[in-house]
Design a protein that fits this description.
globular; 3 helices
Length: 68
């Protein structure tokens, strides 16, 4: 885990997303996506090489674009 619970409590309000997408599907866990982005940046791997424990690469890329 890259972000402690205390750090996430500070970051969370700025990274809030709606509970569902515009198509009614539930959103991915924002913390898991954030940690996937940190993992990618820390290791230098590409999106498609993220371990399966993280959300799909398209989800990570979409959230990174949203949060940028």
């Amino acid at each position: 885990m890259f972000v402690s619970d205390e750090q996430w409590a500070v970051l969370r309000p700025g990274l809030e997303v709606p509970k569902t997408s515009r198509f009614g599907r539930p959103r991915a866990d924002a913390r898991a996506v954030f940690e996937a982005i940190l993992f990618m940046l820390h290791t230098g791997i590409q999106w498609q090489d993220l371990p399966k424990t993280f959300p799909p690469k398209s989800t990570g890329h979409d959230y990174l674009s949203l949060w940028s």
